Amino acid sequence: MAGDASAFTPFVESFQAKIFQYTWLTCGQREDAEEVAQETLLKVFENFDQLREPEHVRAWVFRIAKNFCLMKRRRSVYAPERELSLDELLPSAEGERKLQIRDEGEAPEDALLRGELNSRLESAIRDLPEIYRSAVLLRDVEELSTSDAAAILDVTEDVVKQRLHRGRLALRKALASYVEVK
Amino acid sequence: MSGHPHSHDHDHEQGKDPLCLEIFARLSEYLDGELAAEDCAAVEEHIADCPPCVEFLQGLRTSIEASKGFKTPVAPDPVDEAMRERLQYAWSEALARRGREAQKARPGPGPAPAS
């Protein structure tokens, strides 16, 4: 791909949406997300000859996006950092409803609920403290490996695993109190 | 992970039993297939006899699946013409630099054969 000029348009189309989703969920404001996504794309193209491991192109692109998001965050007022403890992610004392989503033979009302679930999930992802959100976005939403996520975030794989687990528990809790689809 | 006897009488309530807590801390690694075989077996041994942990695990798995299929409903604006030109220029410059580097890296023609 790196040596093929015809790869330009498919690359833009494929990565623009992915980068935007990441920056949208990270920056919080549409204007910021658009700006950061475009800065990322430009930086990617300007430095494409520096890409040494084409098989890790997605990790390389998201690392650039993450750095632009960090710079944007430093220039704006945003959710303060905080850590989630495992205790606050335990099942609540009053119990929780089962979280089940049917994905076969979806009826219209299920599609509606799925849309609501998606909306709730987006909101829950946004509400995560940044360190957990970035782990969830890279590992679960973008489905990058633990090793790629660790390289992007400049932390060890164990730290990625710990942040991912807490982020997932927080999302599970946020969704469990809201959704019951059978 | 420490081993523990299969127990029918530990207190599962609200998942706050120490055994449940130990499992609870490792469920992501378990679901991701990142636990060592011995730890994986310990998790499976515990959840075989712990309905609250099974229920919690199912909920966690479901929310992970939802994240994996997540697509934000908001689409980015299309790249405008000016930006497209900048991107295209940057791309062709990068490709040209890469081409020059590749050429430099190729071995030279070597000494001319003696006539």
The overall pLDDT of chain B, averaged over residues, is 82
Largest β sheet strand count, sense and barrel closure of chain A: none
What's the overall geometry of chain B?
A: elongated
Question: What is the strand content of chain A?
Answer: under 5%
Oligomeric form:
heterodimer
> How many strands of chain B?
0
Number of helices of chain A: 7
Low-confidence stretches of chain B: 1-9
Q: What percent of residues of chain A adopt helix (DSSP H or I)?
A: 55-70%
Short structural description:
Chain A is mainly alpha-helical and about 180 residues long. Chain A is built from 7 helices and no strands. Chain A has helices at about 10-25, 30-45, 55-75, 110-125, 130-140, 145-155, 155-175.
Report on the architecture of this protein:
- The complex is a heterodimer of chains A (182) and B (115).
- The model of chain A has no long low-confidence stretch (mean pLDDT 82).
- Chain A is 63% helix and 0% strand.
- The radius of gyration of chain A is 18 Å and the shape is globular.
- The longest helix of chain A is centred in the first third of the chain and has 20 residues.
- Chain A is an all-alpha fold.
- With 115 residues, chain B is mainly alpha-helical.
- Chain B is built from 5 helices and no strands.
- Chain B is elongated and about 80 Å long.
- The relative contact order of chain B is 0.09.
- The N terminus of chain B is likely disordered.
- The interface between A and B is large, with 54 and 48 residues.
